Amino acid sequence: MSTRAIKALVKIMQDKEIGASLRIKACEGLLEYEAPQDIVELAKAFLTSIFEDEEKSVTDRLDATKLMRKFEAPRIRQQVIAQRDPVDYIEAQRDLAISIRKGELIRAGLLPNQFPADWADDLRSADWIPPPPGPTQTAAEMFREIDREAAERRRARLKLVKTDQQPQ
Q1: Distance, CA of 123 to CA of 107 (rounded, Å)
Q2: Is there a contact between 101 and 120 (Cβ–Cβ < 8 Å)?
């Protein structure tokens, strides 16, 4: 099934009165989108006729060759090897886990100089695996939440101190 747009592009591509560069652009419009196979073959035949014609300008021949290569073979790309977790993410998660554990120890009543010698050894080990990223919260958001919760606890303590000091 040929649409009116496809018919118009074929007409432009086949019109010898139009410059080769515009005819190549019409051909590109045919190849870049889904089109009937006979139209695709017609466009490829046109491109072949342009890049094989030594009387055509080098620019037109190169454009036709480039377009033909683009659609005749898949592009070769170097394989990208992605790290499972970026180093920044791992270190941010490690810092967060250490901060959380430090907060738990302080809430348990210990001062930093009273922490056990190995209180964060497992978190600092080279084989520590961070938790997977949450679907809605980044490490920065978690740090902000921890800071917000700490500020709320400080405000609550101040309120308790103020109510204890008020005369009755």
Answers
A1: 19
A2: yes
Q: Which residues of the chain have pLDDT under 50?
A: none
Residue 144 lies in a domain: yes
Residues 104 and 68 in one domain: no
- Contact between 72 and 44 under an 8 Å Cβ cutoff? The reply is yes
Same domain, 11 and 57: yes
Asked whether the whole model's pTM tops 0.70, one would answer: no
What's the number of domains the chain is made of?
2
What per-residue confidence (pLDDT) applies to 88? Answer: 78
Picking from 18, 13, 10, the residue whose alpha carbon sits closest to that of residue 64 is 13
Q: In Å, how far from its chain's centre is CA 70?
A: 24
H helix intervals, the chain: 4-14, 20-31, 37-52, 58-72, 87-107, 121-124, 139-165
Q: What is the pLDDT of residue 55?
A: 92
Please give the full DSSP string across 119-152, using - where no structure is assigned: TTHHHHSTT--PPPPPSS--HHHHHHHHHHHHHH
- The 8 Å CB, 24+ separation contacts for 19-25 are 20/50, 20/56, 20/57, 20/60, 20/64, 21/59, 21/60, 21/63, 23/50, 24/50, 24/60, 24/63, 24/64, 24/67
